[in-house]
Amino acid sequence: MRRPDGPEHGLPHSLLVLGGTSDIALATARRLIARRTRTVWLAGRPSPALEQAAGSLRALGADTRTVAFDALDPESHETALGKVFAEGDIDLVLLAFGILGDQAHDERDPARAVQVAQTNYTGAVSAGLVAGRALQTQGHGSLVVLSSAAGERARRTDFIYGSSKAGLDAFAQGLGDALHGTGAHVMVVRPGYLRDGGPFSTTPEAVATAIELGLRRRSEVVWVPGALRMVMSALRHTPRALFRRLPV
Fold first, then answer.
1. How far is CA 210 from the centre of its chain?
2. Per its UniProt record, what InterPro entries does this chain match (predicted)?
3. Are 54 and 65 in contact (CB under 8 A)?
4. Fewer CB near the last or first residue (10 Å), C or N of the chain?
5. Would you tell me how many other CB atoms lie within 10 Å of the CB of residue 48?
6. Which residues does the annotation mark as catalytic?
7. Rounded to 5 degrees, what angle do the CA atoms 199, 202, 203 make?
8. Which of 97, 158, 94, 102 is nearest to 122 (CA)?
9. Is the Cβ–Cβ distance between 116 and 99 less than 8 Å?
10. Radius of gyration from C-alpha coordinates of the chain
């Protein structure tokens, strides 16, 4: 049922990160802890990096715990996430796992390409459905899905990664429609590439800032930086023959 003392202005008391070592996720967690978040779960493959990330958030004053989670093992997702929700309501689930892959190498190694697709799309579909159902059951909460501007139109240089993010983006939007009116909310975040030096690149901290603002506004889609929205809209409608010649 809906909690009467829910987060003010959309900011969470409790946070579950799927992909607990993600730079964007940790920047977001730090920002939210500085506001009002007090309980954080970091879900990921057990590793020193995951424990180090948890320790860094504990040092900021958050009650931080870890839970074993593998995007490539969908059969375990219900159990892994169920452990977290059994401990109490979760105000925000941040789906932040994913891999970029190596386009040039992966084109010659289909098994590697499939791993990119399974991590970024198949694993996210499974985890997203489990998380969405849990948020719907408790009657409140947000699911923030890290998509990518690359999913708007796949380029020659990244079409394996881009296609996986395009599928994830479409799934997340559809899940948002399915959950509309239940108290649960889905927000898709489409950042540019991180620190690639390009004019529309971004940083984990900038994405974290945009996520906070999106939660306050209860947005459904957030672009980072915001100017990417118009740029990618133009590229999406560019004739294919011309698009192939663009230096993108």
1. 13
2. NAD(P)-bd_dom_sf, Sc_DH/Rdtase_CS, SDR_fam
3. yes
4. N
5. 7
6. 161
7. 150
8. 97
9. yes
10. 18
pLDDT digit string (tens) for the chain, length 248 residues: 344 344 456 799 999 999 999 999 999 999 999 999 999 999 999 999 999 999 999 999 999 999 999 999 999 999 999 999 999 999 999 999 999 999 999 999 999 999 999 999 999 999 999 999 999 999 999 999 999 888 777 777 889 999 999 999 999 999 999 999 999 999 999 998 776 666 677 899 999 999 999 999 999 999 987 666 666 665 565 565 665 665 65
What's the pTM value of the predicted model, to 2 decimals? 0.89
Q: Give Cα separations from 156 to 36, 104, 144, 166 (angstroms).
A: 43, 10, 28, 15
End-to-end Cα spacing for the chain: 47
Six-digit token pair at 177? 């429609």
β-pair partners for 43: 18, 67
Calculate the dihedral angle through the C-alpha atoms of 220, 223, 224, 226, rounding to the nearest 10 degrees: -120
Compute the distance between CA of residue 46 and CA of residue 50 in angstroms, rounded to an integer: 6
DSSP-derived 3-state class of residue 246:
coil
Kindly give, in sequence order, each residue whose CB lies less than 8 Å from that of residue 104, ignoring residues fewer than 6 positions away.
none
Q: Within 10 Å of residue 34's Cβ, how many Cβ atoms?
A: 12
